């Protein structure tokens, strides 16, 4: 910790929507009178039929139920597109920047309306109706946003799957959502390399079954096999459907999307978000956290395959009539200056990215940044994992030239939008701290027994009351929702994160306290990687933990016990890494594999991960109590054979 505090810059206190006094006052009102506060905030969207009830929520584990604005009706696509047409039809809604710096495209709100309406009619032509699930497996091309909004327009529920996931991972999500339609592309392009999306979708469809349509957007025009009757090129049907498509009237609590995310146990969960509360919450957070003003060019570098892309590339910005930039590429292609060149090219005012990208670019030195101007920038953002103070300082000093505040935004797939964050005109910044709660958010830090801790303290982070953007259930498994989030600390939403609160009431997220790891901002369950490893015929047992990694934040350290008769070798190590990539996707590639004749277990057979974590972290001196182990000598072997981590 640098211990430094950054005051709100003078020009910001003049220009921003909210100063500190306004934040304090609005925050107090939001938590003391949530019905009044959110009832007013709901006025930021158009309603087809007004609601009469604002908040109807319960965190009681016997009856977890979350409803906001429940008897109102509206439509998300109407709010993100149609209602802007009269005032900003010719304003650019989406700036698309391709992987190749020569490729870009600007889409006005009027064009967005036409594209989304047509896409919606294509889905209808393939039989998609309100409530049906549509799987979207696309690269970062405008059609990803069109497809999401097209679903919203007709009341279909989208399930976007990150293009880096393997056919197996995709199949699991298709199956769980019972989705009969996949929207994909012939190929994706990232960092100059092709990604075989259609081939992956084919393999997934075969594995999952029940898929009757694969809609293929042409991105590279590569020739891909097309199965007659099932597979159709998007542009072929688009020509045949009308350009006009009315918006379906949706109940406030009708589902908008499912997004799968990893937990500490089992398969990824389908996080379900609904219509009105989600939109109100993403709109208000996008406006205040990024201090978004008309005319600003806003860029969030996330992929639409993650919640950040849903809430802060598509829904929040478009609900606010913003100009949102969508980037197909990666930070280091064609060079380490790419982000900064894109900022100069499109005159980006607000830039929102992940610590892992900042750390990687920081390692490349200042020169690739300094050769660009970045004078359009006025605000920087960070999301996805804790940002270490060194990376924060570099981002502030080199990228933002000491003039741009940094909003370090803490939230989760489950929360729908940002919950703990600075507001740039209101909050003094401390590098590494997500600072203070957003409106309507009541954080609580608890000890292991669930007792509320007060003042400066450290423990597990819970949220004690609902906010409109909160997930409503785990798709198809409400009991899992209750068990995962409301039973550890009864009556409270448990985030899975550890957190410290300092004497100024600032929150410092310390990372996950469960068996979830955060690798380069991607969330993974250690159990998922373990089950991929044990599916390999030569592996008998596996235990996976995270360890500190300079760039990725956390790396993946796997302890693997082989089947009797199998010998450890470098070839086998490479084979297992390749196997996990194939089973889950490249984001889950183990960084280190240590072959272990046996794993440390308690007498009841439970693997002691605490010890494995310490060994992976290189903290041998501090292994804690090992006397409960069935065979304490196992630990010596693990320590002696520890693999150097990269
Ligand atoms: O551990 C926290 C970390 O990311 C987790 C949520 O991951 P996911 O659902 O994939 O959503 C990521 C994008 C919102 C959290 O439980 N996390 C997210 N933002 C921060 C963070 N940790 C520290 N600081 C943050 N700003």
TrEMBL record:
Protein name: Acetyl-coenzyme A synthetase
Organism superkingdom: Bacteria
Domain AMP-dependent synthetase/ligase: 82-463
Positions bound to ATP: 384-386, 408-413, 497, 512, 523
Catalysed transformations (reactions): acetate + ATP + CoA = acetyl-CoA + AMP + diphosphate
Single GO cellular component term: cytosol
Positions in coiled-coil regions: none
InterPro entries reported for this sequence: Ac_CoA_lig, ACAS_N, AMP-bd_C, AMP-bd_C_sf, AMP-binding_CS, AMP-dep_synth/lig_dom, ANL_N_sf
Residues the record lists as binding CoA: 190-193, 308, 332, 581
AMP-binding enzyme C-terminal domain location: 528-606
Organism (species): Rhodoplanes roseus
EC class (word): ligase
Keyword field contains Acetylation: yes
Keyword terms of this UniProt record: Acetylation, ATP-binding, Ligase, Magnesium, Metal-binding, Nucleotide-binding
A molecular-function term among this protein's GO annotations: metal ion binding
Classification via Pfam families: ACAS_N, AMP-binding, AMP-binding_C
